[in-house]
Write a structure and sequence with these properties.
6-stranded mixed sheet; 5-stranded mixed sheet; 11 strands; D-Maltodextrin-Binding Protein, domain 2; Bug_dom1; globular; signal; 2 domains; 318 residues; disordered N terminus; alpha/beta
Amino acid sequence: MRSAKSAVGTAALVAAAGLVLSGCQDGPAQSSDLPSGNVSMIVPAGPGGGSDVAGRAVAAGLEEAADVTISVENQEGSGGALGFSNFLQYEGDPNYLISAETALIHIPATQEVEFSYQEFTPIFKIGEDSTLILVRSDSELQTCSDFVEKAEDGRVVVGFAGGLDEITFNLFEEASGAEFDYVPFGAGSESTTALMGGHVEVVSANPSEAMGQIESGDVRPLCAAAEERYTYDQISDVPTAKEQGIDVAFAQYRGILAPGGISDEARQFWIDAAKQYVESDAYDEYVESAMLQPLTAFGDDFTSYLDEYNDTVVSTVE
């Protein structure tokens, strides 16, 4: 989708409470170059959403793995741009982490902002969250092939809430030659409500945010915009778009980054803690509760993933 560029200002500095880190025995080794004093997990979104849940789950997991205390701070505003802009001020400070997802890439690609993912230090990718393409249960559409074919011949109104949905529908357009009419919403719950009310015909939604409506029978998925089918029982029979002849697969990643300019030692401290967390029952419980695909990456591998992800996003929104 062709988005107009807009300026986003940097907010005031955020004061942190003084929490003292304890020594680590089973987690990464401590040194004077590693986190000391307060450690904060910044969530660039309001409470209760996917980014907030991810940030709090990982903060708790890293506390256990690294034997530290991490406070979580929500910095809501401008679709995440406020929190990411504020995070620039912590350059070189290993006492800060930030929960990130597609918005970190999508916002700089569509708006004039001061930050980009390249300004920060990628620690690890928690997992991936591909969307389901949903219709009302009484819709005439049965597959994603039906969806794009109808748009090729006529009008299909799609609802979207954020960069992930926008990019996914853009990829459907590129793969099929179809064109959709777009209606933006502030949150996935709003677009799903509009779908059930008949105000839009198709929406894109993460499995976890739409599962209640799927299980109640109000909506049903046409396909998953994923490389492989989900293995969760409730949606394991939903085919991928590729199975239906549409070459589209795009996931929202969820990840954790540190500020740019931290030492190699501090970077490795957080990577080691993240690897230990991923091996824990707490990680498995979070992934299942959020219905993520547990596709992880650490350090340089996560950086390479973000480089490729950025290329896809930029080429899609141009």
